[in-house]
Amino acid sequence: MLVEQSRGPQEFPHGPDVIGNPGGHGRCHSQRLMTAAEVVKCKPASQRRPVVFPFLRESVGESGEAPRTHADAEILAFDMGCTDSVGIGLPHVAVARRVVQLGVVKRRLQHARRQRYLQHVHDTLELLGEPSALANTHAQTVMDIETALANASLTRGDRRDPHKLFHKLKRRQLQALTPSFRWSAYFASALMKGTSVINVTEPAFFDKLQTLLETRDLDDWKTYLRWHLVHAKAPHLSSPFANANFDFYQKYLRGVEVMQPRWKRCVRQVDRDLGEALGQVFVQKTFGSDTKARALKMTNEIEAAMQSEIEQLPWMGDATKKRALEKLHAIANKIGYPDRWRNYSSIKILRDDYFGNVEQATIFEFHRQLAKIGKPVDRDEWQMTPPTVHAYYDAQMNDINFPADLLRLSVGLHVIIAVGQPKPTGAGERNYTRGIRRGVWRRIRDVLGPDEASYSWCLVDNTCPECSSGWAYTWVLN
Q1: Crossing angle (nearest 10°) for helices 132-151 and 104-127
Q2: Rounded Cα–Cα distance for residues 124 and 241 (Å)
Q3: What's the pTM?
Q4: DSSP codes of every residue in 335-399
Q5: What is the H or E stretch that residue 334 is in?
Q6: What is the rounded CA–CA span in Å between residue 245 and residue 253?
Q7: Which of 50, 77, 71, 56 lies closest to 148 in space, CA to CA?
Q8: Quick count: other Cβ atoms within 10 Å of Cβ 257?
Q9: What is d(CA 468, CA 197) in angstroms, rounded to the nearest whole number?
Q10: CA–CA dist 241, 127 (Å, integer)
């Protein structure tokens, strides 16, 4: 409705043509139109997928079409943000692994999931037009390649150790690790010509990838890539593909009984692809300047209350108080919406091409992320869109982010913070104070003295009376 109410790109110069033109992503709503056209486009693409990747040594001389999107890069078993281990259709590496150390019950569950995944791959390939017997053979090929890749991947537990995920290599070192893959050609096609150092998160994975590139037939890789193309695009295809994808990944693996109505999925897609363009319309229609001013006033009062209470804490030493106040005052408050809107004007939206519009948005984001390499961190960037009912504290950036829709719902409950006044109950205030608590705690926990450490748990779970001289501090920290 917000998109339909807007007056178009003249009103929002940094948005694509879809703003004010529901024909672009609005085609997503049309089941009749989605059924025929989008599959026709995806099917030929799946047949020529090996040509899209002319970077394998076996395919030298074929067309040099570039990997246009992050999804294109991902299906060849690596992630271009840094070379990482992906390209496995099961959501958890442990499910794809053949682990003999598991107990009987877990082995049976793992086997059942692998068999269901095998059936899902078969069914999807059948939807592409493959005969059942051929789809069975190709599904097993996909499973064999993915199992080998999974067995060479780090587990979830290992990936929590940052030291295991950082291995800087120069281009020549990466090429030596996987000589069967032409990295220079890939980087040039992906417009990454200036990238000289790459973080290879899992060298063992790429060592195994090299072995597979040497030992598996080219036809096996064509099958693998064809499957992953359709798998990546399934939510944007016709109902048979979207339903098959939902039945396995959502219903079977996650227990979600019913797929969301098409209109909800379409709205989410617009928010994902063009979130700040949609956000401009949302803010103009629903979030007035007075709402942002009140939210800023709320955050300033919360910080002032916390500063007052920190300064009066009897158990915290002066040095620790100084560190805590430095952290408190360094927090950046992002309220409502970005100060600078993202420019989507390079995206060309067509009224009759929903699948192509999603591809255009993906290409845009792929190159937007690549453009960050070698540049200072953009501390004004938001990780949520204005129409989101959520909030987050980013410990690395030391900022708290409150999208407009959360504040629109909660700021009306604001009660000025002062010792002796009623306890505030607004969702925005609770979320904000939780963010402050975690941020300050992370900053001071390594410098607490022995006496301070005995009380430090109050910062997380304030239940001891010595930690607070009044309810304001108790509430601010909880």
Answers
A1: 130
A2: 7
A3: 0.75
A4: EES-SS----TT----TT-HHHHHHHHHHHHHHHHHTTTTS---TT--SS-TT-S--EEETTTTE
A5: strand 332-336
A6: 11
A7: 77
A8: 6
A9: 50
A10: 7
Q: Nearest Cα to 455, choosing from 391, 444, 126, 116?
A: 444
Question: With left for phi above 0 and alpha for psi between -120 and 50, is residue 8 left, alpha or beta?
Answer: left
192 touches 225 (CB < 8 A): no
Coil, helix or strand at residue 290:
helix
Check the CA dihedral 258-262-267-269 and report its sign. positive
Give the count of beta carbons closer than 10 Å to the beta carbon of residue 447.
Answer: 13
Which residues have a Cβ under 8 Å from the Cβ of 304 and sit 6 or more positions away?
Answer: 417
Kindly state the tokens that stand for 164: 């295991």
Q: Report the DSSP beta bridge partners of residue 332.
A: 399
Question: Domain residues of the chain, as ranges?
Answer: 2-276, 288-340+380-477
Partners of 197 in the β-ladder: 170
At position 150, the amino acid (one-letter code) is A
Q: What is the mean pLDDT of each run of 10 residues along the chain (478 residues)?
A: 50 50 57 49 49 44 41 43 71 66 76 94 94 97 94 88 90 93 86 82 93 94 93 90 95 94 90 94 86 82 84 85 86 90 92 87 91 88 91 84 80 35 43 54 51 45 40 29
Structure tokens at 244: 């098959």
Other residues' Cβ atoms within 10 Å of the Cβ of residue 379: 11
**What pLDDT was estimated at residue 61?**
32
CA 164 centroid distance within chain? 21
Q: Tell me the two tokens of residue 229.
A: 């193309």
**pLDDT of the residue at 109:** 86
User: Please, is 426 exposed, middle or buried when counting C-beta atoms within 10 Å of its C-beta (0-12, 13-18, 19+)?
Assistant: middle
Residue 350 identity (one-letter amino acid): L
Q: What confidence score (pLDDT) does residue 174 get?
A: 92
In this structure, CATH architecture of domain 2-276? Orthogonal Bundle (1.10)
Q: Which amino acid is present at 348? A: K
How confident is the model over 371-397, as pLDDT tens digits?
888 889 999 999 999 999 888 888 788
With tokens 């890789």, the residue in question is: 221
Contact 227, 89 (CB under 8 A): yes
Summarize pLDDT for 313-325 with one digit per residue, the tens.
Answer: 888 888 888 888 8
Residue 168's φ and ψ, nearest 5 degrees, are: -75, 130
Neighbours of 395 (CB within 10 A): 12
Look at the domain 288-340+380-477 and name its fold.
Collagenase (Catalytic Domain) (3.40.390)
Question: Residue 20 is which amino acid?
Answer: G
User: Residue 386 corresponds to which tokens in the numbers above?
Assistant: 């204005």
Distance, in Å, from the CA atom of 10 to the CA atom of 240, rounded to the nearest integer, reads: 38
